[in-house]
Design a protein that fits this description.
This protein folds into 2 domains: 10-65; 71-105. The chain has 2 helices and 2 strands, in the order αββα. A two-stranded antiparallel ribbon has the order 1-2. With 116 residues, it is of the alpha+beta class.
């Protein structure tokens, strides 16, 4: 009878392959670990990029809303472009409707063009 605690390689279960089985198993383990590391590196990189985008988006909205920085409302009619700075989200919606109505009724004249 064999002693279970003698620490021989025979207890591992590689009796048929011996040391070659251990080497093959080690190589497979290295390949699997490298493959998983490369995949996890890509997943972490994509997650960090998305986190940066979300943080910048939140900072931009906070900068506009909390610190009362103006939104720039652009209206385009043909080649004419009108821009108006507006403070506040709701006010920008009202400004869009106002500028669109003024352009449609002809009240808003096109800005002067440079004759270069």
């Amino acid at each position: 009878m064999r002693d279970i605690g003698d620490g021989s390689w025979g207890d591992v279960g590689f009796d048929d392959l011996g040391i070659f089985g251990v080497i093959i198993l080690a190589l497979i383990a290295v390949v699997v670990v490298a493959f998983l590391a490369l995949i996890l590196l890509n997943v972490v990189a994509i997650a960090l990029e998305l986190l940066i985008v979300v943080v910048l988006l939140i900072a931009g909205v906070i900068g506009r809303v909390v610190f009362r920085r103006p939104w720039t409302v652009f209206a385009k009619s043909g080649a004419d472009v009108h821009s108006t700075p507006v403070v506040g989200w709701r006010a920008s919606g009202r400004a869009i409707e106002d500028v669109a109505g003024r352009i449609a009724s002809g009240q808003l004249q096109p800005p002067p063009r440079d004759r270069g």
